[in-house]
């Protein structure tokens, strides 16, 4: 994902990736919470939260991810690691990343009727 905008020299590629990953991970947290809340209602303690608190948690989670994952030398190591990757390996990775991103969000929407009925 980082290589999508590697030609740019600003921090936007890293920031964009962190925002996307935060959204995906936040969605996965909501899925897990919903499943646990449906199977074990006694653990559904956040059901009465207002939307503002969920939004604040998302912003906190975004800042946490930014502080944890933002390391330019770490991203440069990824580029070195995949530098000699063949075209077929690159295409396979490209598809796997997209399947992960789209599948995570779709899973949430597929499970919504089951979890909230």
Structural key phrases:
single chain, 117 residues, mainly alpha
How is this fold's topology laid out?
Layout: H1 12-39, H2 51-69, H3 72-81, H4 87-115
Global morphology: flat
Count the domains. Answer: 1
Please work out how many helical segments DSSP would assign. 4
**Rounded mean pLDDT score:** 78
Residues in helices, as a percent range: over 70%
Query: What is the string of helix and strand elements?
Result: HHHH
Q: What's the end-to-end separation, in Å?
A: 36 Å
Which stretches of 5+ consecutive residues score pLDDT under 50?
Answer: none
Count of DSSP E strands? Answer: 0
Task: Give a short account of the largest sheet.
Answer: none
Kindly provide the radius of gyration, computed on alpha-carbon positions and rounded to a whole number of angstroms.
Answer: 18 Å
Question: DSSP strand (E) fraction?
Answer: under 5%
What structural class do you assign from the helix and strand content? mainly alpha
3D structure, described in words:
- It is a single chain.
- The chain has 117 residues and is mainly α.
- The protein has one domain (9-115).
- It has helices at 12-39, 51-69, 72-81, 87-115.
- Helix 1 (12-39) crosses helix 2 (51-69) and helix 1 packs parallel to helix 4 (87-115).
- It is flat.
- The model has no long low-confidence stretch (mean pLDDT 78).
